[in-house]
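ok here's Succinate--CoA ligase [ADP-forming] subunit beta, seq below lol
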Amino acid sequence: MNLHEYQGKEILSSFGVRIQRGIVAQNAHEAVAAAKQLTTETGTSWYVIKAQVHAGGRGKGGGVKLAKNLQEVESIAEQIIGMNLITPQTSAEGKKVHQVLVAEDVYYPGDSEPDEFYMSVLLNRTTGRNMIMYSTEGGMDIETVAEETPHLIFTEEIDPSVGILPFQARRVAFNLGLSGTAFKEMTKFVMALYTAYVKSDASLFEINPVLKTSDDKIMAVDAKVTLDDNALYRHKNYVDMRDIREENPIEVEAKEVGLNYVDLDGNVGCMVNGAGLAMATMDLIKQAGGEPANFLDVGGTADAKRVETAFRIILKDPNVKAILINIFGGIVRCDRVAQGVVDAYKNMGDAINIPIIVRLQGTNADIAKELIDNSGLDVQSAVQFQEAADKVQAVLA
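and the structure came out like this:
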């Protein structure tokens, strides 16, 4: 589950990570009130207005601006709220901005070149260990840094059974070229950041930039946080942070009915039971010359109602030109799935106007094939993987 910047900072602050303070606002009036409150609490007289969307590169799209007085706060908030923000991480249509974060200005007067660092915490799937990735080149796209100056990217791997050790935090501070008070502050920052990552059950913390102020404070100026959905039952207070306005509406609908669905850019819809088989089916479609339009795991209860729901969700994508149903009958019998396909097809009537290929293997697969073949519907059955691939290729030709 992706979070907005202000939500990520709330989590960081709760674990003792110093952050750039800010207040979220839904309109220009609230933005001005937030700015006044910040002045009272922090003494700041300049303010940073940040669009709150689930996408990076907001500054490049005009979603992050500096306001030097309350009039500018109001004007900039009016400009940003309601705009379609286009960044390198959004679609061509961009994302509509519903709220802004009014933050204190932490770049002190006279700091012509403040020290900015990049830092993230994530899982290294190759080693099975957590990893802190960091660089002296903060404020830039880390992908650009990795491509042009890879020697400026450092990593610190942490055994999750032991946790981060003080010497590792000190090594991070040393590699960033810090000394004195800033060195000690960075060490505390790294320890607190890793603790926040583990205890919030996050899958990603990305802080870009981490700022060293002229008086040697270390703070998170930005925060990109992704939480592990499977661990939300342990964090009831995080569940309400989900903003479905930022998510794909088809994926939201699928989740509400208990389907594992991920929207893709292809032309062949997939309906499969089991994540591994779903991945193999996507490979099959690619080899047949098509492009998978989705990942869809219907699970082990592929009855008529569930199959019909899956059909309706797949067909919401106008790019889908064919549907491949690939079911292994282990827990669920193939004939039950086949009957579900037939019933769903009949219930939906003219709503299904594209070719459907059904491959069923496992328990009662022969009965299932007979049900499909004798249904009188425009549904093609297949037994072997290659046979299904050939039929996909034929309908796309």
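fwiw The chain has three domains: 1-20+109-246, 21-105, 248-396. kinda neat tbh
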